[in-house]
Specification:
The chain contains six helices and nine strands, in the order H-H-E-E-E-E-H-E-E-E-E-E-H-H-H.
């Protein structure tokens, strides 16, 4: 025989369980919503950091800042934005046969520093730079972590991204980042490193153009001075005096060329 009190107690138990389940579901939904919100905020902060870094680098290139400073800023941004233990940039030497380390940044020395042209004989970096194809190692989390001694760090690296620097189909060098922990980089990391590599190529192109313009200006100035000297030596009443020749030269040249008595 079922008593009314038993029924009421059973209904109370069911109601308690229902409320507990509802509270648990509500808490899980709130945690999921908070996690999604945190992920969105983290993604927005990361996007802002990337934008700020790229704008700063572009401004440095546009203002014709020293190319070494621009490259150091790029390497520093690569290590910081990709949460890497090391970032480095290497360029081909004058012979085009050997890569030389240009600048590095590590977790212990976060600000990128110039290196005294240390040669890079690493087969992995050389292959990526010569082939002109970016590489992410390992490509997936399921792959076995790599065991690579990073030449810029001198320690074992378990995850890396390597991007070539190319200008008009010509190889200039490479940019890479590495992590000591077995925490692979994702495709978005490789894309970000490629954007930084593009900025490095633009900086190198501007530096090359500036050097060519300076060389051309020097050549033109030498030709102009040679023409003035030739005219001054003509004789026949149409020569320039030494004072006139000096006056026709720019101030910097006057300091080098001082007419004799």
């Amino acid at each position: 025989m079922v008593f009314a009190g038993d029924v009421m107690r059973a209904m109370g138990v069911f109601e308690t369980e229902r409320r507990q389940n509802l509270a648990r579901l509500t808490a899980e939904r709130e945690r999921d919503q908070q996690a999604a919100l945190d992920a969105q905020q983290a993604a927005r902060r990361a996007a802002e950091d990337w934008t700020q870094a790229l704008v700063g680098i572009s401004r440095g290139v546009a203002n014709m800042e020293d190319v070494d400073q621009v490259l150091a800023a790029i390497v520093d941004a690569a290590r910081r934005l990709l949460d890497a233990d090391v970032a480095a940039l290497a360029l081909w030497n004058d012979t085009g046969l050997e890569l030389e380390l240009k600048c590095t940044a590590t977790a212990s020395a976060p600000e990128a520093a110039a290196e005294p042209h240390a040669p890079i004989h690493d087969a992995l970096i050389t292959r990526v730079v010569r082939d002109g194809r970016s590489s992410r190692i390992p490509k997936t989390a399921s792959e076995a972590p790599v065991g690579w001694i990073c030449p810029a760090l001198g320690r074992l690296i378990h995850a890396a991204c390597i991007v070539p620097l190319r200008l008009n189909g010509q190889s200039l060098g490479g940019l890479w980042v590495g992590r000591e922990a077995a925490r692979p980089f994702v495709p978005a990391d490789l894309s970000g490193l490629e954007r930084l590599a593009d900025q490095a190529v633009i900086a190198l192109e501007h530096a090359l153009m500036a050097a060519r313009l300076q060389s051309l200006a020097v050549t033109e100035e030498r030709a102009r001075i040679a023409a003035l000297i030739a005219e001054a030596r003509k004789g026949e009443g149409e020569f320039l005096s030494a004072a006139e020749l000096a006056a026709a030269m720019p101030f910097e040249t006057q300091r080098v060329f001082t007419p004799g008595p």
